[in-house]
Amino acid sequence: MRAKIAVVGVGTAGCHMIDVLAKSNIDKQARLVAVDNKIDGVEYRNADVKIAMHKGYPGTLHQPWAAERGKEGALEVYDEILAALKW
């Protein structure tokens, strides 16, 4: 039995790493999941699953209060993240 591996990249840097892994052909052996705080952060990623937190939220989250908003965003898409890990 082969192990099922999911790699989750969160945020700009994490999503960039997903792109790097996709180019290395690891995506044939693992499911690549990109999670970012806005839709354009994941839209063009080379991920198997793309999850945008804060759907419909305008603007950037690079503010002092962003950590709390990030937690809220992750909770909003919690079920999507779990579904991406169950494959």
Chart the SSEs and their pairings.
Layout: E1 5-10, H1 11-23, E2 30-36, H2 39-42, E3 49-52, H3 66-76, H4 78-85
Roughly how many Å apart are the termini?
14 Å
Instruction: Tell me what portion of residues adopts beta-strand conformation.
Output: 15-25%
What's the CATH H-level homologous superfamily?
Answer: Tubulin/FtsZ, GTPase domain
Binned, the helix content reads 40-55%
Q: What kind of sheet is the major sheet?
A: 3 strands, parallel
As residue ranges, the low-confidence spans are none
- Mean of the pLDDT scores? 82
Enumerate the strands of the largest sheet in spatial order, edge to edge or round the barrel: 1-2-3
By CATH, the topology is Rossmann fold
Cα-atom radius of gyration: 13 Å
Q: Class by helix and strand content?
A: alpha/beta
One letter per element, helices H and strands E, the order comes to: EHEHEHH
How many domains make up the coordinates?
A: 1
Q: Work out the helix count.
A: 4
Overall shape: it is globular
